[in-house]
Design goal:
Peroxisomal Thiolase, Chain A, domain 1; about 35% helix; about 25% strand; 2 domains; 4-stranded mixed sheet; alpha/beta; 5-stranded mixed sheet
């Protein structure tokens, strides 16, 4: 039976740095308030005219991942593109990547699982490879949040959290038993879908209807988040799905060399770290620099951790995410 391994990693973030002090000039907030609640110090935003978009950033990250995997675009059999912020309502970003990178007429699959998108994408890629259908799969998580945030005091509870960026991984077939992706574990709970959501524009809320029926103080085309409720659910689901992955492989928290949690909130990551009694060297966080980049957060963090030498061959790496849907998942990887 085939296994899948990560053969190349890459990430890209826009050059434009937006600090907490920068946001305080646009809304009633300050650096202390933001850091106390989220741990975030700054984030990256696309700047008008810099040529970036969700798909463009995905391509930039993908090119780095391919180079590190020592593969050309001709070797890729499938593109999986995870995002909540595609360049267009349709088609999705996967086909745009295929065109921008001048790839063969390979399939392109888009995944809409928000913060859990990259873990879901890794799981899908892993299954395609394990069955023998594909040999090399390009997995991308990319987000352009800044173009759709309410940058006023009204929206500060959400807008201070999110940043733009992209991360990519090349998943490759392997026959090395006991290495690569050992297992993935996925869940959802649609009962809480509206607690973290963006209801329009959509087929239920087209733009003319939104403008006609909603006062300015209640604009449904900005994201909504019930922060405390999301936090309480996140810490429970993170712990559950990490334990599920460990137990499935007869492992314990003591076996973890590196945990890469979705960068939702530094306080959530710290809570989970404490739950599993992990040291600072066993958990990688970069939300301080980039904010929450949703589907891009895990591949960006995974790439940085690898670049800094914090992930080595033979290490047990755990990826875990929780987000809108609610959806959550984990991946257990022997590097």
């Amino acid at each position: 039976m085939y296994t899948s391994r990560i053969s190349g990693l890459g990430y890209y973030v826009p050059e434009n740095i937006v600090t907490n002090d920068d946001l305080s000039k646009k809304m009633d907030t300050n650096d202390e308030w933001i850091q106390e609640r989220t741990g975030i110090q700054q984030r990256r935003h696309i700047k008008k005219g810099d040529g970036n978009s969700t798909s463009v950033m995905g391509v930039k990250a993908a090119k780095i991942a391919l180079e590190r995997a020592k593969l050309t675009t001709d070797a890729i059999d499938l593109i999986i593109f995870a995002t909540l912020s595609p360049d267009m309502y349709f088609p999705g970003g996967g086909v745009q990547v295929q065109e921008m990178m001048n790839m063969r007429t390979i399939p392109a699959l888009d995944i809409r699982n928000q913060c859990s998108g990259f873990v879901y994408a890794i799981s899908v890629a892993d299954q395609f490879i394990k069955t023998g259908m594909y040999k090399n799969v390009l997995v991308i998580g990319s987000e352009n949040h800044s173009g759709g945030l309410d940058m006023t005091t009204r929206g500060r509870g959400v807008s201070v959290i999110f940043g733009d960026g992209a991360g990519a991984a090349v998943m490759t077939r392997s026959e090395r038993d006991g290495f690569g992706v050992l297992s993935t574990h996925l869940h959802s709970e649609g009962a809480h879908a509206k607690e973290l959501s963006l209801e329009g524009p959509s087929t239920a809320h087209w733009v003319p209807e939104i403008i006609a029926e909603n006062p300015q103080e209640n604009i449904p085309y900005y994201p909504y988040m019930n922060g405390q409720f999301v936090f309480k659910n996140a810490v429970v689901r993170f712990s559950e799905v990490i334990n599920e992955g460990l137990q499935a492989n007869n492992l314990t928290a003591a076996d973890i060399n590196m945990l890469i949690p979705h960068q939702a909130n530094l306080r959530i990551s710290q809570f989970v770290q404490k739950q599993f009694k992990l040291s600072d060297d066993q958990v990688f966080n970069n939300i301080q620099k980039y904010g929450n980049t949703t589907a891009a957060s895990i591949p960006i963090a995974l790439t940085e951790a690898w670049e800094e030498g914090k992930i080595k061959e033979g290490d047990l790496v755990v990826l875990a995410a929780f987000g809108s849907g609610f959806t959550w998942g984990s991946a257990i990887i022997k590097w």
